[in-house]
Structure formats: C-alpha cells, structure tokens
Amino acid sequence: MTEIHGVSLAALRDQGALPSSHHCVYLSGSLVRGWGNALSDVDVYVITDEDWSSPTAEQGHVALEPDTLPVEIRYVDGRRWDIEYWRETQIDQVLAKVDWSVLDGSKAAGNRLSSDELYFLERLSYAAAVSGDDWLRARKEQLEKSAMRSVLVARSLNNADTYTQDVIGQLEAGDVESAVLSTKIAFGHAVDALVAAAGEYGLNPKWRARRFRAAAPGLLTFEEYWSVENMHRYDPSNPRAWVEEALEICQRISLEVSI
Known about the structure:
Elements: H1 9-14, E1 24-28, H2 30-33, E2 42-48, E3 58-61, E4 68-76, E5 79-87, H3 88-96, H4 115-125, E6 128-131, H5 133-144, H6 148-172, H7 176-197, H8 208-215, H9 222-229, H10 239-256
Parallel strand pairs: 2-5
Antiparallel strand pairs: 1-2, 1-6, 3-4, 4-5
C-alpha cells in the first residue's frame, strides 16, 4: 500500500474520510512538488462516484454539475490535511473546458475556467497517486494532450494587457502611484504567461519565482525577472523609470509568446 507524506488508504479510513469505493486517491500541492515546508498542508484528492457527506464536511461550490465540492479538514501529527472529494463526472467537465475545441484564437479563451478549476488542473499535472495509478496516469495524459498550456497563456496575456492599459491611462492622468501598483499586477500576469508557455502551470503568486526557475524560459533570465519582481531598481524619486522598464518586459513577452 502506497503512503505519501503520511497519507495512505488506511490512514484516511482511520480518519473516517475514505468512501467505500473510489477511482483514485492522490496527493498534490507544494509538498508533492518538493516546495513545501514544515507548516505546509497536505492536499488530498479523492475521486469517487459517491455522494460524500459527514457531520464535519464543509461544502464548497464549483461551476459544475453537481455544483458542490465536499471538503474534510483533519489534523494528523501536527499537519493539516485538506481532503477534497471530486466526482469523476466533474473532472470530465473541467477537462472539457481545456479541450482544443474551446480555443477561438482569442486571448479571452482562458477566462472560461474558474480559479478553482485551474488550481485543480495545475495540481493534477504533478499529482502522486496513493491508489489508482492507472486512473491518474490516464488523466495526466489527457491533460497533457489538451489545450491547457494555450488556455493558461491566453488567460494571463489577456489579464496582462488589461492592466497594461490601466497603467497607460493612469500615467496619462498623473496617477503614478496607482500606475506602479497596476504595473506590478500586469508584470505578474505577463510572467505567468511566459512560464505557462514553457509548461509550468500555476496562478498562485507566492510560487511564481519557483515556477520561473523550473520553467527557465529563454526570453527572460531569472535575474531580469527577479529585479523587477522585487522592485530592485525602483527609485521613489523617479517611479516612471521602473514602470517603463516593467512595461517593456510585458510588451516583449506579449509579442514573443504565442497562444
């Protein structure tokens, strides 16, 4: 029996958190990627056809059918376990949203998925099975052959363009402080597009530097990226210079990265 970070079928059963039947149980998140720490949660996904309910289950909501997502929270040996119960039919629906047929050549194509759905697909890409290896392998292959890369690139480029336009308008209005804040957001989306194009999926800003190092895109060095991300060359007496530097990189990414 496979055990990962203390999670096994027996451990889930002992916690009263294992349905009588399931297609797969897998782990994902920062611990699985090797990016976690002593305080990181364990993210557990249980794929089943059953209705899961218990006195301790929280009910999340997703834009799927059914529209509920049961979640159990347990604390085991000082570490929090977040256990999500997904129906296989829900996963079919999420994967259908990144089918090649959804792309229409528009940058807005990436906005068809909710953040919850994108997080789910990101974590599916590097998940590790506790049980149901064949099921997980088949779903990973399905995701790899999908338009996921293009969908995420499109979403991030569209968001970067939106905030870039905000920056231009704010500078014209003399609102430099707001332009600086909008630039930080635009730059983050542009970098997300760049690393997604290299196959590193993710939306959480706290892992952007990690994703950049893993992707190692040729268009931008880590040093160039990090200098803007941490505002190393920002001069309070001349904020426009930093804004213009960051926008130049955003524009370069927008021109070079294709959907």
